[in-house]
Amino acid sequence: MSTAMIYAEFAAREAHAVSDAYEKLAVAVSRDRDLIARLDTLPPAKRQPNLLFAAVRFLDGPVTDPGAFRDFTTAHWPAVEAEMLTRATQTNEVGRCALLLPILAALKQPVALLEIGASAGLNLFPDRYSYRYGDHRLGAGEPVLDCALTGHQPPTTLPEVVWRAGLDLNPRDITNPADVRWLESLIWPEHAHRRERLRAAAETAKQNPPLLIKGDLVDDLPALAERAPTGATLVVFHTSVLYQVPVERREAFIRLVRDLPGHWISVENPAVLEYESLPDPPDETLHNVLALDGRPLAWCRPHGQAMSWFA
Q1: Which residue in 59, 93, 162, 269 has the most C-beta neighbors within 10 A?
Q2: Residue that is last in its domain, among 36, 65, 86
Q3: Are 195 and 297 in a shared domain?
């Protein structure tokens, strides 16, 4: 898919009705030959809309006016390019914990969590947050995560987590203001609720920081998994991570994680982590697939705002 089409599809399937600012920006970039030419000089994994928009925000550039955005980006292209080349879309969207919870609560307890692409490790605290599935409320911590759940009963208990660890090529330090600023830059302009829950989750993580290891999802996973306590159910999980991994490494990871003891939870785009047969998604907006041990269970919205079970 061409870079222009990537931005056009992002506008239509991800940003539409979710972020008016990013929908307009993505459409404008898709039609801008100069910006597309600049983006095409970057490696394919570095051309994505979220990364470009976050880099401009991190540099205090405008992202709510396409014209001002273009002027800033072209005038400051060396700085924008440098940020895009050295950073990644480590959104650390805690709303995705609401997608994981129905599975985590149903597994044999206690559980040992190991997240691939953990960023600052905020999704390693599903037992510390609160959840609201429609009228059903669970938990007493902060933040409160809302998820529209259909096709499945809401969970009634929180998991018992006795160990939490993360693996990332560039883990973020939640106590480092610059790292927190990058995570906030990745949140879309109108999404004040996501910024608020990021900050609340950061306060939770600071109280008991998880073990975060700088490493590769294939080379370094076995050694970290061996550190999980005996007597706990090991759960290796990842959400919207594998699209950043080259195909051959992705396939090596899948072979490896299938052979580890415990369970594997994934929330990924079906174009990235493919399945033999899937029902149609609820609508034409972007949906990822929640799966347990390679078995697809539900369609999920990218920020955890909705989940539709079909299994």
Answers
A1: 93
A2: 86
A3: yes
Output the DSSP codes for 269-286.
-TTTS--S--PPPSSSS-
Indicate which CATH number applies to the domain containing 247. 3.40.50
User: What totals of helices (H) and strands (E) does the chain contain, helices first?
Assistant: 11, 12
Within this chain, do residues 54 and 134 fall inside the same structural domain, yes or no? no
Select from 86, 111, 138 the last residue of a domain.
86
| Residue 22 and residue 139 share a domain | no
Looking at the chain, which runs of residues are DSSP E strands?
Answer: 111-116, 130-133, 136-138, 144-146, 148-150, 161-168, 211-214, 233-239, 263-268, 288-292, 295-300, 306-309
Distances (CA, A) of 280 to 9, 14, 55, 306: 18, 17, 34, 16
Q: Phi first, then psi: what are they for 42, rounded to 5°?
A: -90, 160
- Domain tally, the chain: 2
Query: Which residues, 6 or more positions from 296, have their beta carbon under 8 angstroms from its beta carbon?
Result: 275, 278, 289, 290, 310, 311
Q: Domain containing 109: what range?
A: 94-309
Same domain, 133 and 80: no
Per-residue pLDDT of the chain (311 residues; tens, 9 = 90+): 899 999 999 999 999 999 999 999 999 999 999 999 999 999 998 999 999 999 999 999 999 999 999 999 999 999 999 999 999 888 889 999 999 999 999 999 999 999 999 999 999 999 999 999 999 999 999 999 999 999 999 999 999 999 999 999 999 998 899 999 999 999 999 999 999 999 999 999 999 899 999 999 999 999 999 999 999 999 999 999 999 899 999 999 999 999 999 999 999 999 999 999 899 999 988 899 999 999 999 999 999 999 999 98
Both 20 and 105 in a single domain? Answer: no
User: Across-strand partners of 165?
Assistant: 114, 211
Q: Are both 70 and 201 inside the same structural domain?
A: no
